[in-house]
Specification:
mainly beta; five-stranded mixed β-sheet; 4 helices; about 40% strand; elongated
Length: about 300
Amino acid sequence: MRRCRFGQLMTRSLKSSGVATICGVAALVALAGGCNAVDNIANLPIETSFAFTNFSKTTYAALRIRAHDDTDTAPYFPTELLAPGATQRQRFVDALGEGCPNTLDMQVLIYERANSDIPIGLDDGEVVGATPTVAGEILDVPACGVQPLETYTIVSWDTESGQSRVKLAQDTPVDAVIRAINLFDNADSTWDVDGVDPKFASDAPPEHAPFEPIAGQVLLANGDGVEGVGVMLRTRFRVRLNDANPTNDPDADFGDPITFTFTDTDGVFSFERPPGGYRLEFFSDDVAFRPAIIDVEPPIQSVLVVAEPI
């Protein structure tokens, strides 16, 4: 467990980071000072929320989150168990009882699949292990004490087995402060966890996130449906921030197909997956497609693809 005292770390940064860098951070904190007085979401200029996303290729992730206070006794709000590619969005006021927490406490838990030899979307029930393979906690992470964000992003990236990498509030003023106070000692400024904190060793996984439809139709120009078109579904993954080296494997992309289906006599296809980021790819020996690749987020039932005979 790592304890971060935001105010103490800001003071330390003032001594070590230089005036030019810290003045920008201090200005952000000063501008957000009114957040301490927020008692109701209606008083905020924007609605604040968090979004937890699992960008692993293979593992399932769960988050627990709460507003930080020094008593260290408040209950955590638990997310559902997120499959690769899935996202859960939640308003802070609904999850934590306040619209704009100054700082946050978080726990992350990673679960391995029981049937790793079967593609995720074809694995009936998508069973995971009874206990986490990675689990850790961090306290007092900067949030609205820097600046209220419409969506505070929390993203679990793809890693080696037994590890997790979580990126917080990417490319926001909160991210800038997290970097300025050196909360995480790595180039991507990610919260990295190795192994399982013993206090979480026996924690069972939460319920899976509910599925939503991804559906659409493949049509000829005259409106007739095209039967037998293959449709593959891929999930998004991310490994690190820098994907600029073309000699490396991609650090962010869509992974291997997790499931597939074929269109019926009306050209209709459908999948069921949790909300999140997915890529649809269409294939056939007889027709070409416009477009052949579509990125979607369920629920969506209006995907339309035009097929042209080859």
